[in-house]
Amino acid sequence: xxxxxxxxxxxxxxxxxxxxxxxxxxxxxxxxxxxxxxxxxxxxxxxxxxxxxxxxxxxxxxxxxxxxxxxxxx
Length: 74
Description:
- There is one protein chain.
- About 45% of the residues lie in helices and about 20% in strands.
- The chain is an alpha+beta fold.
- It has a two-stranded antiparallel ribbon with strand order 1-2.
- The radius of gyration is 18 Å and the shape is flat.
């Protein structure tokens, strides 16, 4: 993966954390990561999904709701 580089702003105005950007955050780098995901990761997910070993959780909910959904599914 690419190395991180510090941004010009250096600090997040919301959480005050250090802002970094990956050196491979380019259209080509992103497409390459998506290609690897499609070719290598999705087949593994599908393999385990067919064996009924994948739990899906809606991560767009509030943190507490996501946590509770995980607990309920486990």
